Amino acid sequence: MDILITGFEPFDGDTVNPSWEVAQALDGRVIGIGRVRACRLPVTFRDAPQRLAEALAQGRPELVIALGQASGRSEISIERVAVNLIDARIPDNAGDRPHDARVVALAPDAYFSTLPVKAMRDGLRAAGYPAGLSLTAGAFVCNQLFFELQHRLAGRGVRGGFIHLPALPEQAARAPGGLPSMGLAAQIDAIALAVAIAMGEVQVARGADEGAPTG
Predict the structure, then answer these.
(1) Which residues on adjacent β-strands are paired with residue 67?
(2) What is the pLDDT at residue 201?
(3) How far from the centroid of its chain's Cα atoms is residue 184's Cα?
(4) Which residues are catalytic (predicted)?
(5) Which domain holds residue 38?
(6) What would the pLDDT profile of 100-157 be if each residue is shown by its tens digit?
(7) Of the residues 71, 75, 145, 202, which has the maximum number of CB atoms within 10 A of its CB?
(8) How is residue 10 annotated by DSSP?
(9) Is 142 a catalytic site residue?
(10) What is the dihedral of CA 210, 198, 22, 72, to 10 degrees?
(11) Contact 150, 111 (CB under 8 A)
(12) Would 136 be classed as within a structural domain?
């Protein structure tokens, strides 16, 4: 099984992005019957969708998990919904800062993750990792990429979704006033476990396969 995990380059003046550090560390790892293939994405509205399309075309992934950084969050945030909206709080790495734009014209207003989000949350918590479900991936490149992913996978029978990661300790130490953080080794192990749960390799006691909304 081909498992695609994407991560982003650093942005907003930082020198590291935990999403790529985690994806890179998992590149080539065998998890259950699958092998991870990592892809580094630019933090630009113009180029991220095209790079995603190329990564999808390079293999035949049966599971795709996109990772991003959410500075200020203290837990691994498993995103439930991507919205068809770009409204940039800061410029991207190319200096672009679009407002009130649609990700894909004439596409639905939102897509839900097709990952087993509750099982992943419960499994991570049971293993001791702080994890939760999130109803907003923001309106920056992370949300754009999440929406593009779900739009491209719609109807293909491939599970996909997005997970936001906390800042790394070195990033938190540089931030004025500090930030919540999680060590890289813990983030790597947590995402490896999340992949195993999404593949059905790990059974979670209370977990439910609920990628679609149930109320």
Answers:
(1) 163
(2) 73
(3) 16
(4) 79, 142, 164
(5) 2-199
(6) 999 999 999 999 999 999 999 999 999 999 999 999 999 999 999 999 999 999 999 9
(7) 145
(8) P
(9) yes
(10) 20
(11) yes
(12) yes
Q: Which of 73, 67, 81 is nearest to 194 (CA)?
A: 67
Based on the residue annotation, tell me whether 79 is a catalytic residue of this protein: yes
Residue 103 DSSP one-character state: S
Tokens representing 211 are: 């990628």
CA angle 81, 83, 89 (to 5 degrees): 115
Choice among 142, 148, 170, 210 that is catalytic? 142
d(CA 105, CA 108): 9
Can you tell me the distance from the alpha carbon of 124 to that of 131, in angstroms, rounded to the nearest whole number? 6
* Count of helices and strands (H, E) across the chain: 6, 9
Q: How far apart are the first and last CA of the chain?
A: 32
% of the chain residues with pLDDT over 90: 89
Give, as one character, the DSSP assignment of residue 215: -
Contact between 72 and 26 (Cβ < 8 Å) = no
What is the predicted pLDDT for the residue at 178? 85
The answer as to whether 169 is a domain residue is yes
Catalytic residue among 21, 39, 75, 79: 79
Other CB atoms within a 10 A radius of the CB of residue 149 amount to: 27
Number of domains in the chain: 1
CB atoms within 10 A of CB 128: 10
